[in-house]
UniProtKB/TrEMBL annotation:
SUPFAM superfamilies: Bacterial luciferase-like (SSF51679). GO terms for molecular function: oxidoreductase activity, acting on paired donors, with incorporation or reduction of molecular oxygen. This is Luciferase-like monooxygenase. Residues 19-270 form the Luciferase-like domain. It comes from Sphingobacterium corticibacter. One of its GO terms (cellular component) is cytosol. It comes from the Bacteria.
Amino acid sequence: MKNVKFSTLELAIVVKGDNLAGAMARAVESAQAAEKYGFERLWLAEHHNMEAIASSATSLLIQHVASQTKQIRVGSGGIMLPNHVPLVIAEQFGTLETLFPGRIEIGLGRAPGTDQHTAMALRRNNLNTSFYFKDDVLALQQFLSSSNHTAKVRAFPGEGLEIPLWILGSSTDSAYLAAELGLPYAFAAHFAPAMLSSAIQIYRANFKPSAQLQEPYVLICANIVPADTNAEAQLLATSLFNMFAGIITNRRVPLSAPTAEPIYAGIPEIEQAVQSMISCTFIGDTQTLVSELTDFIEEYQPDEIMTTNYIFDNQKRLDAFRLTADTFKKINNN
């Protein structure tokens, strides 16, 4: 089995009893821990109109995190490109790449990262922007290319920096696009695992080499909840389960402390909905995680696994980076 890189997705989630500034501080701690333990990259996700998530101004938070670390790659997971004009993203990330050369990358998504009312506010009542996702990706790629020097509209900073682009997806649509453009593909199995297998197959079967990438590159984002014992990990994971229940019932609240059992226990509709979202979730001590993740990696053959970290207790959350790194090092050494 080939070595699998490991990385992390950061949403700058507010925990109960804290605030947005605290969430941003925790995001910096995440990046520093990930860097310390050998994670490949940390991505920040764009979300809007969610009072418990502090990453709405994604490029600004990327700058803050990059300034507090030394070498880990920092990027977006993702920038929801239909919310923005490509020129502005080229200038923002061109600025970031100029400040932190060789460390910045851009993951691009098609979804709004919010509800429809907020999407209308972001897109000035033009909800058709998502239909031009491919055109916008190509435009962004052109603005970042050295071949754009003869164009009437140019990105400064940005032009010629060739910042790596990724396509994000949670269904099969973006798999086709990533394959057509020859870009690395990141699948959001941490909350939408249903089409994982189909999307990866489509991407690999249709991949066309590009200047950025000669062979398909698959990143799978999954939830990993590590602890010293299986029992402790199962307890810590209830914060994640309860958060998903809040999303399903439209009660988005700060990340809460673990509970003896999930708050939706005994409500079959919610139990089923949560289970469908967390089928790519790995919970346990290192031995358990090595076993389960090895099987998962053998089945899907990803090049990289990106983990989430929805652990309430801050020290246990930081310990999880060490335990996750230990898990992947054992997998890769087998």
